[in-house]
TrEMBL record:
Source organism (scientific name): Actinomadura viridis
Enzyme class: hydrolase
Official protein name in the record: N-methylhydantoinase B
Alphabetical keyword list: Hydrolase
Domain Hydantoinase B/oxoprolinase: 4-526
Length: 610
């Protein structure tokens, strides 16, 4: 079917507008800080064939709803809800991610779906926030809800809502968030129904096909063409699971590229470690791995000709036909067996982004960015004059250096997410934000430096409990193509260093919690970085004078506006440092790796020739 190009532009623009309008409505009407202020949620639009049409962000799946409630039995005004990890077909990673799905109707039939899912404050379980870091079972993590009809033809199921809010430590926030999400998705469904009414079902669905086909062809032509045919292997690691002592929990990818094949990319996870006792597992082996295909595909955009072009490329269902996923047998980190806990599954799915980037770096001679780790949960909870409270924040970190630019500072993998404003935090919770800035020297040294993480300090005004769900507290974000690893995650409370996984460490009034999040890995040899750029980083407080000397081999002199590079002394120092170091490794995993690897500084798969 030939698609009218003007109508195609209209439909694409309408989908993007509806998605944005749904997210804006949720942000303006939700109650919890995690949704309203931190924006840890996203919307998605899917067609009647369950294909994701929009590509600004990843989303959950409609598959489990359509599995349990056939579309022919859905009615206008219905709203479906689920958060059950093992009954979500891989679309939900942990129980605090609550998902709302609304069908779109045209002439009495379902023609599309509007969906929203996000990370909510509390859905029950062993600890406030529903992310017990030492959980051994999903039953400790909170209330599991399989797909249910939460609204029936416009009438809310009050009994189900009462059960959910009764299980939450923050019932008012949960009720407000759910109401916001249901109302926003219903509004989005009305907007899409207007699109079908105006242009007709056949024309609009023809545009849906064209949108998806365009993505498939664009990725095949512009991105996959940059990867040589062949097979490459790489792996990276989570460092702890909250139960066993820290060790290397491997996630391995064997990437096979055959551009002439109907499915040009095969991603094989064989070699991934057995499922963990603690909550770092991710149930990814459902629906042929369709969630993970769309989760990992954005990494391919780094192969675009320019960063501007990369930013233009959406990731919708069009990437799915290009990738085949092969999972190991049941019982691994990616194929856990119910009721294995999953609340810290970010340790695995974030690491997989880096594993795919690493294996592509081997395949393309280092063209991919260095590593980043941009989600970790920190927070405090207790009681104040208004009753129980929970402050939990998803602080970002630095992204990896790229072959053309430094990494970005303090980013988050979820689009539009942000830190909680200090003014709001101090008005709502019993602490003072004494500092919120960049963590000096946290970015991995390189010809292109890794982005910096946060340096945040909270002084408690009342006794409280501290919590943390964070990886990369031992291991670092790796550097590539001669770049060095970034600094790992660090938290200390009045000088006492915390582990990455903490449920309830006591914090006394007057004590200071200092949080320094991860820096991205560096790209390229740091001794190749322009000395004037290093001096500028020192003037900006991103690199210390000691870091300039030790990490970059730059000798500083005093200039009129601050430190400047001494060119002659720098050249001499770099010559000595290069000779002492020898060739820079292709991958640098940082000083934490030998602690968990028996003293080895690199893995067998790090050799770019293997």
């Amino acid at each position: 079917m030939n698609t009218d190009p003007i109508l195609l532009e209209i439909v694409e623009g309408t989908l993007a507008s509806v998605e944005r309008e749904v997210e804006t409505a949720i942000a303006r009407t939700a109650r919890s800080p995690m949704i309203r202020d931190a924006h840890d949620f996203r919307a998605g639009i899917h067609d009647r064939r369950l294909r994701k049409l929009t590509g600004r962000s990843y989303s959950a799946l409609v598959h489990p709803v359509a599995r349990d409630f056939p579309p022919e039995k859905m009615r206008p005004g219905d709203v479906f809800f689920h958060n059950d990890v093992y009954l979500s077909e891989g679309g939900i990673g942990h129980l605090p991610d609550l998902c709302v799905t609304v069908p779109v109707f045209h002439e009495g039939e379902v023609v599309a779906f509007v969906q929203a899912f996000g990370h909510h404050d509390d859905i029950g379980g062993a600890v406030p926030g529903s992310m017990p870091s030492h959980a051994r079972s999903a039953f400790e993590e909170g209330l599991m809800v399989p797909p249910i009809r939460l609204w029936d033809q416009g009438v809310p199921n009050e009994a189900a809502l009462r059960i959910m809010t009764r299980n939450s430590r923050m019932p008012d926030s949960l009720a407000g968030d759910l109401d916001a999400e249901c109302s926003a998705c219903l509004m989005g469904a009305r907007r899409l129904a207007e699109l079908f009414a105006r242009y007709g079902r056949a024309a609009v669905e023809g545009c849906f096909d064209a949108i998806i086909d365009k993505t498939t062809e664009t990725f095949r032509r512009e991105l996959l063409s940059k990867i040589p045919d062949g097979t490459h292997v790489w792996e990276d690691y989570a460092e702890h699971d909250g139960v066993d002592p820290p060790r290397l929990h491997a996630q391995r990818i064997t990437l096979t590229v055959d551009k002439a094949a109907e499915v040009p990319l095969i991603i094989d996870f064989t070699g991934t470690s057995p499922q963990a006792k603690g909550p770092i597992n991710h149930a990814g082996d459902y629906a042929d791995g369709v969630f993970l295909k769309k989760w990992l595909a954005p990494v391919l955009r780094n192969l675009a000709d320019t960063p501007e072009r990369a930013a233009e490329l959406d990731v919708n269902e069009g990437v799915v036909p290009l990738i085949e996923m092969r999972f190991p047998e049941k019982g691994t980190l990616l194929t856990p067996i119910f009721p294995a806990p999953t609340n810290a599954r970010t340790f695995v799915i974030l690491r997989l982004l880096g594993v795919l980037a690493g294996v592509l770096a081997k395949a393309t001679g280092g063209r991919m960015p260095a590593d980043q780790e941009t989600i970790r949960y920190t927070g405090v909870y207790g009681e104040d004059d208004r009753g129980p409270y929970l402050m939990r924040e998803v602080l970002g970190g630095g992204s990896g250096g790229r072959h053309y630019a430094d990494g970005e500072d303090t980013i988050h993998v979820v689009p539009d997410s942000r830190n909680i404003p200090a003014e709001f935090a101090e008005a709502r919770w019993p602490f003072v934000v004494e500092r919120l800035g960049l963590a000096t020297d946290s970015g991995g040294p390189g010809a292109y430096r890794g982005g910096l993480g946060y340096d945040k300090r909270l002084r408690m005004l009342r006794d409280a409990g501290y919590m943390s769900i964070a990886d990369r507290s031992i291991l670092s974000c790796w550097g590539v193509n001669g770049g060095r690893a970034g600094r790992p995650f660090r938290v200390d409370i009045d000088g006492e260093e915390m582990e990455g996984l903490v449920d309830d460490h006591p914090v006394r009034v007057g004590q200071v919690i200092r949080i320094r999040t991860t820096g991205g890995g560096g790209w390229g040899d740091p001794f190749d970085r322009d000395p004037d750029r290093v001096a500028a980083d020192v003037r900006d407080g991103k690199v210390s004078p000691e870091g300039a000397r030790d990490d970059y081999g730059v000798v500083l002199a005093t200039g009129a506006s601050g430190p400047v590079a001494d060119g002659e002394a720098t050249a001499e120092l770099r010559e000595r440092l290069r000779a002492a170091r020898g060739p820079a490794p292709f991958f640098d995993r940082g000083p934490g790796y030998p602690l968990l690897s028996g003293g080895r500084t690199s893995a067998d798969v790090d050799d770019p020739g293997r």
